[in-house]
């Protein structure tokens, strides 16, 4: 029980550390206004391109993609932030396991990622008349949770790889755009050239977006469990690879003494 | 000119700017191209080939004019620039020109990628008008950047604002979709933004239009650009006054 409390405390402290420098106004801008505009922008393009009858499909896709903010600029940026603050070596040298330090942070970002998706869906409801049947709210919420978790796994992997670079921003922005382009958020994956369609299958959110759209159109979660399990498995695999990459780089930097070197 | 040259060399060294100038044009071109794939060649030219380029140009202007001022403030050099003999406005203008060159480059990257990747034809009804529209748009973006740089000099929320400003302009100015799909209520805001008029001129050059439509759009674009220049010039005078009275130029 103590360890759970400690993990939650770490999650809260790290989350506050990330956003603590923002005023309430700035926090609202980053957390609500920014995602709202992004979703509105792509929904407007979808309205023009695909017709204005029902753009729920694209609202769902673009709302799910909003998890990238937490995945990359929260989870993904955590290693590099520690390094730029000069605290990465302290974290590595601390007696506690670095897994126990970094993983709790993922919990908070997973929850916050869910909030971003909900903000996107609410914007879709207010601006574009998006509706979700009440009976589908619980399975839909489960899909959002799984999508957010899976995206955080990808963020962990990108964050670990970011330790190899001098400036992680290019990598983080590129990874966000890849999710926007290849997960089917804005156009059907079937339109992609065959080689590119393979990329979609190894990315988080592709399955979640597909599943969320099915649930929205009335399908039962139990009939599409393969998509849910696939997304959870992908999230786990990405998290494990991400953490292993971090451990490898940690060991390498101990040997070479390059942990804080850019 | 030396400010422009320095900015041109230094800005591309930053990863975020590299993303804006090199990667984003390709990704936006790709996403919009896939969305507009089944539309006509004219729509593809207007909204993907040119539209995605304008979006990237706007991103580079938006991020650079805000972050450059913020960066100088962070390094503690904003005050030094402010009192430099060359004049703060001229230094800022040089920086904007340096970024503008990269902005134009990002448009070219986007257009080249779209032309090479998608099997679509570029259709333009009036090439001289397209060239004029693009040049006037560049001038207009320089005026906007100048105005924003002034506002961000006084604002402490530059970093937050620059992250939030990108998409509203893309929406309000109808850069990658027609303005007609926007709610009527927001149209007055759209018409006081020069990219709206620039996009109109460019679209008229692609789809064709009557002489009066073209004249109205060109007049709108040039008038609003001129208004932005006047606002920017006044803003810099105001900044000078406020900075000396409040003494808070370098304060976060």
Write a concise keyword list for the protein shown above:
heterodimer; A: 262 residues; mainly alpha; 12 helices; B: 252 residues; 10 helices; globular
Describe this structure in words.
The complex is a heterodimer of chains A (262) and B (252). With 262 residues, chain A is an all-alpha fold. Chain A has one domain (2-256). Chain A has twelve helices and no strands. In chain A, helix 3 packs antiparallel against helix 11, helix 4 (68-76) runs parallel beside helix 8 and helix 8 (137-162) packs parallel to helix 12. The N and C termini of chain A lie far apart (39 Å). In chain B, 79% of the residues lie in helices and 0% in strands. The mean pLDDT of chain B is 84. Chain B is built from ten helices and no strands. By secondary structure, chain B is an all-alpha fold. Chain B is globular. The chains are: A mainly alpha (262), B mainly alpha (252). The A-B interface holds A 22-23, 25-26, 29-30, 33-34, 37-38, 40-41, 44-49, 52, 165-171, 173-174, 177-178, 180-181, 186-187, 191-192 and B 14-16, 18-19, 23-24, 27, 30-32, 34-37, 39, 157, 160-161, 163-164, 166-168, 170-171, 176-178, 181-182.
Please summarize the sheet with the most strands of chain B: none
Beta-strand residue percentage of chain A: under 5%
- Relative helix content of chain A: over 70%
Total E-strand runs of chain A:
0
Per the principal axes of the C-alpha atoms, what is the gross shape of chain A? globular
Q: Give the topology string of chain B: H per helix, E per strand.
A: HHHHHHHHHH
Work out the helix count of chain A. Answer: 12
List the uncertain runs of chain A.
Answer: none
Helix content of chain B: over 70%
Instruction: Report the count of strand segments of chain B.
Output: 0
Secondary structure category of chain A: mainly alpha
Arithmetic mean pLDDT of chain A: 85
The chain-level mean pLDDT of chain B equals 84
Radius of gyration of chain A: 19 Å
Total domains of chain A: 1
Largest sheet of chain A: none
Query: Stretches of chain B where pLDDT falls below 50 for ≥5 residues?
Result: none
């Amino acid at each position: 029980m103590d360890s759970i409390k400690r993990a939650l405390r770490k999650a809260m402290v790290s989350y506050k550390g990330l956003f603590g420098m923002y005023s309430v106004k700035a926090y609202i801008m980053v957390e609500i206004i920014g995602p709202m505009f992004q979703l509105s922008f792509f929904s407007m393009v979808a309205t023009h391109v695909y017709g204005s009858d029902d753009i729920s499909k694209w609202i769902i896709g673009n709302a799910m993609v909003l998890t990238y903010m937490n995945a990359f600029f929260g989870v993904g940026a955590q290693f590099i932030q520690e390094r730029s603050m000069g605290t990465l070596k302290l974290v590595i040298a601390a007696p506690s396991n670095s897994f126990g330090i970094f993983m709790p942070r993922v919990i908070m970002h997973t929850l916050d990622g869910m909030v971003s998706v909900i903000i996107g869906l609410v914007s879709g409801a207010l601006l574009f008349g998006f509706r979700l049947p009440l009976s589908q709210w619980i399975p839909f919420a489960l899909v959002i949770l799984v999508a957010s978790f899976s995206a955080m796994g990808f963020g962990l992997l990108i964050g670990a790889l970011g330790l190899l670079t001098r400036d992680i921003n290019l990598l983080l922005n590129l990874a966000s755009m890849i999710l926007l382009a290849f997960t089917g958020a804005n156009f059907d994956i079937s339109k992609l050239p065959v080689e590119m369609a393979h990329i979609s299958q190894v990315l988080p959110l592709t399955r979640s977006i597909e599943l969320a759209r099915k649930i929205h159109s009335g399908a039962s979660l139990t009939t599409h469990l393969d998509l849910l399990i696939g997304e959870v498995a992908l999230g786990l695999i990405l998290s494990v690879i991400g953490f292993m990459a971090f451990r490898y780089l940690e060991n390498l930097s101990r040997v070479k003494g390059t942990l804080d070197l850019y | 000119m030396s400010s422009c040259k320095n900015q041109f060399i230094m800005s591309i060294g930053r990863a975020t700017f590299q993303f804006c100038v090199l990667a984003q044009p390709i990704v936006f071109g790709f996403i919009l191209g896939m969305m507009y794939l089944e539309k006509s060649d004219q729509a593809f030219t207007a909204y993907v080939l040119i539209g995605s380029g304008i979006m990237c140009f706007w991103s580079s202007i938006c991020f650079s004019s805000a972050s450059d001022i913020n960066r100088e403030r962070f390094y503690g050099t904003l005050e030094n620039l402010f009192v430099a003999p060359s004049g703060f406005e001229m230094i800022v203008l040089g920086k904007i020109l340096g970024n503008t060159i990269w902005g134009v480059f990002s448009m070219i990257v986007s257009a080249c990628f779209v032309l090479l990747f998608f099997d679509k034809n570029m259709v333009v009804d009036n090439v001289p008008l397209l060239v004029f529209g693009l040049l006037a748009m560049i001038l207009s973006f320089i005026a906007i950047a100048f105005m924003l740089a002034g506002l961000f000099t006084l604002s402490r929320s530059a970093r937050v604002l620059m992250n939030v400003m990108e998409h509203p302009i893309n929406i309000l100015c109808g850069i990658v979709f027609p303005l007609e799909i926007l709610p009527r209520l927001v149209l007055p805001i759209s018409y006081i933004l020069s990219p709206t008029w620039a996009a109109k001129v460019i679209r008229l050059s692609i789809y064709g239009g009557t002489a009066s439509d073209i004249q109205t759009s060109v007049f709108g674009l040039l008038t609003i650009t001129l208004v932005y220049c006047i606002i920017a010039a006044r803003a810099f005078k105001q900044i000078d006054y406020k900075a000396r009275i409040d003494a808070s130029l370098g304060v976060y």
